Amino acid sequence: MPKTLRIVLLSVLSGVLGLATLAAVLGSGFAVTMSQGFHVTAPAAMTPAPRASSDKEDRIPVAILLGANGSVATDVLGPYGVLASSPRFHVFTVSVRREPVALSGGLTAIPDYSVKDVLDGVAPQPAIIVNPAMSDP
């Protein structure tokens, strides 16, 4: 085998192995983070769901879903922060139950409404639904 061809093949092989190693390290780090980052830190006292009020009728209702087994914090808090900062939107969170829900990074959120609240008319009917990444919907 010519020396130049051998050098090129070794260089390509080194690059492929380097990329494979990097992908494995990043993948395992992601897997560990996702498996350990969804824990409810402390139970909170539950309050009844607030009734949908008429002063919010002129705003667009936006429901942000929270996974019962955890959601990615940036996917929940990013849209929430952007939409809630506008007076045109009424933003609220919805989950299967009104119990604390784990967000990645050790955060805990208590949903404003349950799915039953939305179906029973206790919560506003959302015009927009934000579905963030969830650990296990």
Compact description:
With 137 residues, this protein is α/β, with parallel strands linked by helices. The chain folds into 2 domains: 1-36; 54-130, Class I glutamine amidotransferase (GATase) domain (Rossmann fold, 3-Layer(aba) Sandwich), CATH 3.40.50.880. 38% of the residues lie in helices and 18% in strands.
**CATH structural architecture of the largest domain:** 3-Layer(aba) Sandwich
Class based on secondary structure composition and strand pairing: alpha/beta
**CATH class annotation of the largest domain:** Alpha Beta
The main β sheet shows up as:
4 strands, parallel
State the shape: elongated
SS element count, helices: 3
Instruction: State mean pLDDT (0 to 100 scale).
Output: 84
- Rg result: 23 Å
Total number of domains:
2
Could you say what the CATH topology of the largest domain is called? Rossmann fold
GO biological process, one term: proteolysis
Organism: Arthrobacter bambusae
GO molecular function: peptidase activity
Protein name: Intracellular protease/amidase
Describe this entry's structure for a reader.
This protein is α/β, with parallel strands linked by helices and 137 residues long. The chain folds into 2 domains: 1-36; 54-130, Rossmann fold (3-Layer(aba) Sandwich), CATH 3.40.50.880. It is 38% helix and 18% strand. The chain has helices at 3-36, 73-84, 115-120; strands at residues 60-65, 89-95, 101-103, 107-109, 113-114, 128-130. The strands form 2 sheets. It has a 4-stranded parallel beta sheet. The protein has a two-stranded antiparallel sheet with strand order 3-4. The relative contact order is 0.20. The mean pLDDT is 84.
